[in-house]
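Whiteboard transcription, Tuesday session. T.W. wrote the structure tokens on the left side:
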């Protein structure tokens, strides 16, 4: 194993020393880091990923346990299973509207407070498994991009393998104010992140692992380095590189990463894998992969940052499907003056009206309580600040006027579809013009047809192709047995302790 280091950065965005005070990004307190939320009920939509809706695998009245599959992919669909994070009883299955406007059936589970685990959830005796088995475990554990993209991880792994990518990128660049959930994972589960990275690299046939992280994250860097040293004897032949970036937002988007690391401007429909020969995963996703490999635990919970406009309240580990209202119940010092609940983080999140009926999903890394900025009828002053900070080099003021005025073709000519909906233009605007959501919403409608790179080239087939295991059966006894086929790095000779 070798460890290298590089300093990189992209232009624009927010710097810590100007518009956005990153010093407010409070480190979490060790006392509350491992706080786990045990909700009374779950709302589990069958659509929590990029792709097709799952089919409920349970019936009303059925009892379920932690780790049990309650939603399975339909044959031939691009989907990964959904599992329960509590034990209890299925009380209803009905359509719900997600905050992003999508409609999905959801399985409602009333908890029994017993925290009974499915018999399949137990440490794997032997993680000396083949690349194909790693792929199957990750697929059947229902793991998706937890940084927000929601693309099934198995799709990206397959794509990386097929395109013969050269580098695995671990995205540790969570950069929204008050969002710390990924850093919680890095500090508390650094060993899982390192072993997960090696497992995923091995599954794709890669040997170079680049860790992208803000240079001010000293504790997290130290935790990762310590984990590498502890794991050194477990594997060899993998080169780890730390790539340090200045703290700014939005540095973790794949397009920003392509520009920063490879000096490539990705066009619509292009992927990191195809153009840059690299595949990137969020660090929480990598942790979830190793949790599935080593503990046989599917993706049933995640770290969530609970914050108000005054700062981060706390990080919790919450079952996926926990209603947002139950998260704020745990944050007892939430400001009573807060008026708006945001599903997601403060720049890119979506305002919701019903926290009792809106759950966190596999992709929800934060929830916020904020006082809404008053709608000000102030006109654009032409100050140009929105253009100065737009990481996609757009002119948000111009695009806003064109889209709001119905001149969409003209907006297209000025690149509206390239907007990544980062929200910094709205944040910086002295007139409080909410242009980011309008431009970002327009851009996402443009991107739906003709599909993103992850639906355009046969990914559905790759979801079905990979595994030694049968679909939606991550928890079968067979899957927990050591693989009989040829052992593949990185697990040769490595036994769990
Ligand atoms: S920041 Fe606001 S006021 Fe300034 S140019 Fe942009 S839209 Fe106009
Ligand atoms: S929301 Fe879109 S237009 Fe606004 S700064 Fe971000 S990328 Fe640019």
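and on the right, the sequence the group agreed on:
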């Amino acid at each position: 194993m070798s460890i290298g280091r590089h300093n990189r950065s992209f232009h624009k965005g927010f710097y810590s020393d100007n518009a956005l005070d990153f010093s407010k990004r409070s480190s979490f307190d060790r006392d509350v880091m491992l706080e786990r939320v045990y909700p009374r009920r779950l709302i589990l939509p069958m659509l929590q990923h990029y792709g097709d809706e799952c089919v409920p695998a349970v019936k009303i009245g059925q009892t379920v346990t932690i780790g049990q599959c309650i939603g399975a992919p339909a044959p031939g669909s691009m989907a990964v299973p959904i599992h329960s994070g509590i034990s209890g009883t299925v009380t209803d299955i009905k359509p719900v509207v997600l905050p992003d406007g999508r409609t999905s059936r959801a399985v409602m589970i009333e908890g029994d407070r017993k925290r009974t685990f499915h018999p399949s959830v137990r440490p794997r005796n032997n993680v000396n498994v083949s690349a194909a088995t790693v792929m199957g475990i990750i697929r059947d554990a229902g793991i998706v991009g937890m940084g927000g993209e929601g693309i099934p991880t198995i799709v990206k792994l397959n794509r990386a393998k097929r395109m013969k990518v050269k580098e695995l990128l671990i995205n540790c660049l969570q950069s929204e104010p008050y969002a710390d959930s990924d850093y919680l994972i890095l500090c508390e589960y650094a060993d899982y992140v390192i072993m997960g990275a090696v497992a995923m690299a091995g599954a794709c046939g890669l040997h170079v692992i680049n860790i992208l992280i803000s240079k001010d994250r000293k504790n997290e860097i130290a935790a990762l380095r310590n984990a590498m040293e502890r794991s050194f004897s477990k594997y060899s032949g993998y080169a780890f590189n730390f790539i340090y970036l200045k703290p700014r937002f939005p540095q973790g988007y794949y397009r920003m990463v392509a520009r920063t690391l490879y000096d490539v401007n990705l066009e619509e429909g292009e992927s990191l894998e195809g153009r840059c020969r690299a595949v990137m995963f969020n660090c929480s996703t990598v942790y979830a992969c190793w949790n599935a490999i080593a503990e046989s635990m599917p993706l049933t919970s995640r770290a969530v940052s609970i914050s108000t406009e005054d700062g981060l309240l706390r990080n919790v580990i919450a079952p996926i499907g926990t209603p947002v209202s139950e998260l704020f119940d745990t944050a007892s010092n939430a400001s009573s003056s807060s008026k708006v609940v945001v599903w997601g983080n403060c720049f890119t999140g979506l305002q919701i009206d019903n926290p009792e009926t809106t759950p966190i999903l596999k992709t929800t890394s934060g929830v916020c309580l904020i006082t809404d900025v008053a709608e000000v009828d102030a006109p654009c002053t032409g100050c140009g600040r929105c253009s100065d900070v737009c990481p996609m080099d757009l002119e948000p003021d111009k695009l806003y006027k064109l889209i709001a005025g119905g001149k969409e073709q003209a907006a297209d000519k000025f690149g509206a579809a390239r907007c990544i909906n980062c929200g910094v233009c709205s944040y910086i605007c002295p007139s409080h013009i909410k242009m980011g959501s309008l431009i970002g919403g327009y851009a996402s409608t443009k991107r739906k047809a003709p599909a993103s790179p992850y639906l355009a080239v046969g990914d559905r087939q790759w979801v079905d192709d990979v595994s030694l295991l049968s679909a939606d059966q991550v928890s079968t006894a067979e899957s927990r047995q050591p693989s009989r086929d040829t052992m593949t790095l990185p697990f040769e000779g490595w036994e769990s302790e």
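Someone added at the bottom: The domain at 1-31+41-298 is CATH 3.40.50.11540 (Rossmann fold).
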